[in-house]
Amino acid sequence: MKTPAILLAMLMMSNLAFAGNYPLTTCVVSGEKLGEMGPPIVINYKGTEVRFCCDGCPKKFYKDPEKYLAKLKTAPSSH
Ligand SMILES: [Zn+2]
Q1: Hey, where are the domains in the chain?
Q2: Which of 12, 14, 22, 28 has the greatest CB tally within 10 Å of its CB?
Q3: Maximum distance among all alpha carbons in the chain?
Q4: How far apart are CA 42 and CA 52, in angstroms?
Q5: Where are the alpha helices (H) located in 1-79, listed in sequence order?
Q6: 40 CA to centre of ligand 1 in angstroms
Q7: How far is the CA of 70 from the centre of ligand 1 (A)?
Q8: Ligand 1 mean position to 76 CA, how many Å?
Q9: How many CA atoms lie within 13 A of 63 on its CB side?
């Protein structure tokens, strides 16, 4: 069975995303501090790691992912 190259690329990207340090200390959906309501929920959206304060937030994220991803991208890379 042949694995499409695009799938391999996605896997590699997701590994890199999870290995890197996350630019935000807060949930992109609610703005709550990550970890304050228990372990953060981590998802991988198109190779980008996104963390949430609770399991209700990914549902909101998926309704308007680009809006929340913009917050992630404008976050300062160092602090
Ligand atoms: Zn939340």
Answers
A1: 24-79
A2: 28
A3: 46
A4: 6
A5: 5-19, 57-63, 65-74
A6: 9
A7: 17
A8: 21
A9: 5
**Residue in this structure with the two tokens 């308007």, named with its chain if needed:** 64
- Residue 11's CB: how many other CB atoms inside 10 A? 12
**Mean pLDDT lowest among 24-28, 59-63, 75-79:** 75-79
- What is the 36 CA–ligand 1 centroid distance (Å)? 10
The b/e string for 44-72 (b: 16+ C-beta within 10 A; e otherwise) is ebeeebbbbbbeebbebbeeebeebbebb
Helix (H, G, I), strand (E, B) or coil at 20: coil
- pLDDT tens digits along 29-50: 999 999 887 889 999 999 999 9
- 19-23, 28-32, 62-66, 67-71, range with the lowest pLDDT: 19-23
Q: Provide mean pLDDT across the span 42-59.
A: 94
The rounded Å distance from CA 61 to ligand 1 centre is 10
